[in-house]
Design goal:
Blueprint (H helix, E strand, L loop, with lengths): L10 H16 L5 E2 L13 H10 L5 E6 L6 H14 L2 E2 L8 E5 L12 E5 L13 H9 L4 H14 L10 E3 L3 E3 L18 E6 L4 E5 L5 E3 L27 E6 L4 E6 L2 H19 L1
Parallel strand pairs: 2-3, 2-4, 4-5, 5-8
Antiparallel strand pairs: 1-9, 6-7, 6-10, 8-9, 11-12
Length: 286
């Protein structure tokens, strides 16, 4: 571990962030302002999520960091190395081994447990921002549960395109009260939020906001009564590496053959599945 301060931030900063986390957990879906600290990383590159992770991590924790499902992307590797250099904690690509999972754009395929914390990096925490530019006005709208503008946006999208086209960051209603941005996760991952065993924490460093989705809370994707919420459809498709179905798949175009292949977005899940299947085959051969 380099330096004299565990987890980079000073103890006062970590306490202040943890107090904001407690308030966010007490009021699910409510955006709690906090004093976002300076990090040796540009704002917009996950500083909100990193500050949450640095404030809650302990010496016995196991950390996993993913970026759009990948454990090996530049962003994921650099964040993991940054946290590890100031904590010396164990890191992993296995979602089941991790106690803290920090992510950008994905929720792991493996169901998360009650002893795990999911930290999501959030570039835009305010679901009303496209409707109202004023921070003071959006606070009043949240207080009055005035979400007509969000419904109107969805309706206009539906009329204009025949379906709601937003591929990610699809708003959810938390515990029948606040409408919340689930971060830029795909719509496919929205169902994992509701009734989850784990604690979800959302950090926006540039916007200086923290909010939370505690275990077993409801998070219902907005939908009209006669038009149900729809996600990406991967029926009939499977991962070309591990054969997994009923998971979120990335499309990969093979320029050499002109073929379109599909691959698990969650690289840790795919790797573990291949290892498990390989071990099973070796046992059968033996």
């Amino acid at each position: 571990m380099s330096g004299n301060t565990f987890a980079y931030l000073d103890e006062g900063s970590k306490r202040e962030i943890r107090r904001s986390i407690f308030k966010a957990v007490a009021i699910p879906g409510y955006q709690v302002p906090f004093g976002s600290r300076e990090l040796p990383i540009g704002r917009g590159w996950g500083t909100g999520g990193i500050q949450l992770t640095l404030s809650i991590i302990g010496r016995s924790d196991v950390l996993k960091v993913i970026d759009q499902g990948s454990d090996e992307s530049v962003n994921a590797v650099n964040i993991k190395e940054f946290v590890k250099s100031f904590t010396d904690v164990q890191t992993t690509s296995d979602s089941e081994m991790a106690t803290i999972i920090q992510s950008r754009h994905r929720v792991p395929e493996t169901p998360l447990r009650n002893d795990q914390i999911m930290v999501l990096q959030v570039p835009g925490p305010e679901p009303l921002r496209g409707i109202e530019a004023s921070e003071e006005a959006t606070k009043v709208m949240h207080a009055e549960a005035d979400y007509v503008g969000i419904w109107l946006e969805l309706y206009e999208d539906l009329i204009r395109h025949g379906s709601i086209t937003a591929p990610c960051n699809y708003p959810v209603e938390v515990q029948g009260r606040y409408i919340m941005s689930p971060s830029p996760i795909p719509k496919y991952d929205n169902h994992k939020l509701s009734g989850s065993d784990c604690l979800y924490l959302f950090g926006a460093g540039r916007e200086k906001k923290i909010y939370a989705l505690p275990p077993y809370c409801t998070a219902v994707s907005l939908a009209f009564e006669d038009i149900p919420f729809q996600t990406e459809d991967f029926r009939g498709k499977s991962c070309c590496l591990c054969g997994a179905e009923s998971v979120y798949l990335d499309e990969i175009y093979d320029a050499a053959t002109g073929d379109l292949r599909y691959q698990c977005s969650d690289t840790g899940f795919c790797k573990k599945r291949r290892e498990t299947c390989g071990a099973a085959e070796r046992r059968l051969e033996a």
